[in-house]
């Protein structure tokens, strides 16, 4: 049975993909604008090799942008993004940060709403429009 999407479903999926891509594009842009500041933020959280990790984060975020815009490897990208966002939430806004700044709790919780969207996207896929065929399971012949 062919799975068809209505116009509003197609639009909603494309908008969601654009939002995912935009969030990671903003993140990677800030890193490229000042990799030293990003490394400093990573060092302040207690991680070793902060400049190396900053470049790794930038590379991951750039790949996520490509995956969300193209739809290539969409499900694995959404799962990796969800794991990455949870990691960021705990590492940079987790319970150890709440005592010093109550706003950190709000930042922490916001990561979970983003993760919920990423997991939903991972389950339902990139939609049927504007999707690169790379990394998608082959359709079963009926």
Question: What's the SSE blueprint?
Answer:
Blueprint: H1 7-33, H2 35-44, H3 50-70, H4 74-93, H5 95-98, H6 103-124
Helix pairs in contact: 1-2, 1-3, 2-3, 3-4, 4-6
Q: Structurally, how many domains make up the residues?
A: 1
Strand content range? under 5%
| Mean pLDDT reading | 90
Helix content: over 70%
> Ends: how far apart?
8 Å
Query: Biggest sheet, open or closed, and with what strands and sense?
Result: none
- According to DSSP, the number of beta strands is 0
Number of helices: 6
CA gyration radius, whole angstroms: 17 Å
Q: Give the SSE order as H and E letters.
A: HHHHHH
Low-confidence stretches: none
Question: Given the C-alpha coordinates, what overall shape results?
Answer: globular
The helix-and-strand class reads mainly alpha
How would you describe this protein?
The protein is 73% helix and 0% strand. It has six helices and no strands. Helix 1 (7-33) runs antiparallel to helix 3 and helix 4 (74-93) packs antiparallel against helix 6 (103-124). The mean pLDDT is 90. It is mainly alpha-helical. It is globular and about 50 Å long.
Short description:
With 142 residues, the protein is mainly alpha-helical. It has six helices and no strands.
Sum up the structure in keywords.
142 residues; mainly alpha; 73% helix
């Amino acid at each position: 049975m062919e799975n068809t999407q209505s116009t509003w479903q197609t639009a909603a999926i494309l908008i969601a993909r654009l939002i995912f891509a935009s969030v990671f594009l903003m993140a990677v842009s800030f890193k490229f604008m000042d990799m030293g500041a990003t490394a400093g933020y990573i060092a302040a959280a207690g991680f070793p090799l902060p400049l190396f990790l900053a470049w790794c984060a930038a590379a991951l975020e750039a790949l996520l942008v490509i995956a969300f815009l193209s739809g290539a490897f969409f499900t694995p990208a959404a799962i990796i993004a969800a794991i990455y966002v949870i990691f960021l939430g705990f590492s940079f806004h987790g319970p150890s940060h709440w005592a010093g700044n109550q706003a950190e709790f709000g930042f922490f919780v916001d990561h979970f709403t983003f993760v919920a969207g990423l997991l939903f996207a991972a389950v339902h896929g990139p939609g049927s429009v504007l999707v690169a065929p790379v990394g998608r399971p082959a359709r079963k012949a009926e």
